[in-house]
Amino acid sequence: MKPPQLLAAARDLVQRRSSATRGVWSRASALLARQALEQAIVDREPKLAGASGRIRLLALRTLVADATVAGRAAHAWAALTRATHHHDYELPPTAVELEHWFDEVERVLDGLR
Fold it and tell me: Please, are residues 27 and 84 in contact by the beta-carbon 8 Å criterion?
C-alpha cells in the first residue's frame, strides 16, 4: 500500500470503531500511520528500505530542504511508536490524539511530495 492509503486506513479504523476492533483499534491505527510515514521516506529514498525507523528519520534530515518536515516526522514517529506499545499503567491513545498525529503525518507526506 502507498502511504496515503495506509494513512486513510488508519483514519478509517479510528472513525469506524466497532466491537470487533475493541481493545486494538487505537494501537492498530497508530501502527498503520507509522507505516505510512516510514514508507513515504523509503519512497523518497529507496536505499533506506532495510533501515530502521530511527535511521530513516536521521536520513530524512538530509533528504529534505525544510527542517520542519523532518522535525514533524520525528515527532509523529516517536508519538506513534509510543502509542503502539502496550503498558499496563498507561491508557491507549485517544481518537483525538491519534487524529492529531495523523494530521502531522499528512503534513509530512505533503512535504515529501
Answer: yes
pLDDT surpassing 90 at residue 103: yes
pLDDT in tens, 9-24: 999 999 987 776 677 8
| Interacting residues of 104 by C-beta distance below 8 A, sequence separation 6+ | 72, 75, 76, 79
Q: Give 12-15's long-range contacts (Cβ < 8 A, gap of 24+).
A: 14/95, 14/98, 14/99, 14/102
CB contact set of 72 (below 8 Å; sequence gap of 6+): 104, 107, 108, 111
Confidence at residue 71, expressed as pLDDT on a 0 to 100 scale: 94
Nearest to 7 by CA among 82, 92, 80, 86: 80
Dihedrals φ, ψ of 16, to 5°?
Answer: -115, 45
Give the pTM: 0.91
Q: Determine the residue type at 14.
A: V
Boundaries of every domain in the chain: 3-112
